Amino acid sequence: MRHEPTTVQEARRRVTELIRDASICLLTTTAVDGRLVTRPMALVAADFDGDLWFFTWADSAKIRQIRVNPQINVGFSGQRQHAWVSMAGTAQEGWDRERAERLWHPRLTTWFPDGPDSPGLTLIKVHAGSAEYWEAGENRQVSY
Known about the structure:
Layout: H1 8-20, E1 24-30, E2 36-42, E3 51-57, H2 61-68, E4 71-78, E5 83-94, H3 97-103, E6 121-135, E7 141-143
Antiparallel strand pairs: 1-2, 1-4, 3-6, 4-5, 5-6, 6-7
């Protein structure tokens, strides 16, 4: 049985371990009419330093929604560890060629066939304001 994390650094380290186990997450934004909209996204940077990065199309609905209301939630389910992570924070869109090249992973070619040169490609940066995680068998939730 895991012990309760005693520091923010311990909790952050555990969140990083858990999100590495889940390469796909669910990103929730708010539509203009107030509805919550959730879609799967591939996580490209799993070193959790407070920011998460995603590739997407600049003309996508999620980008329009983030521009109107940057409050988001990202959910992860780690199947091997039977754990779940939920992060709430703010998102912003912006293209940075150097960062895109550093973050690029070959599996993204499925969605963006021209790689970082795909026309209309952009990045979403999610800055987490809070995170919670649950682990099967622990019967507890950890928030930080």
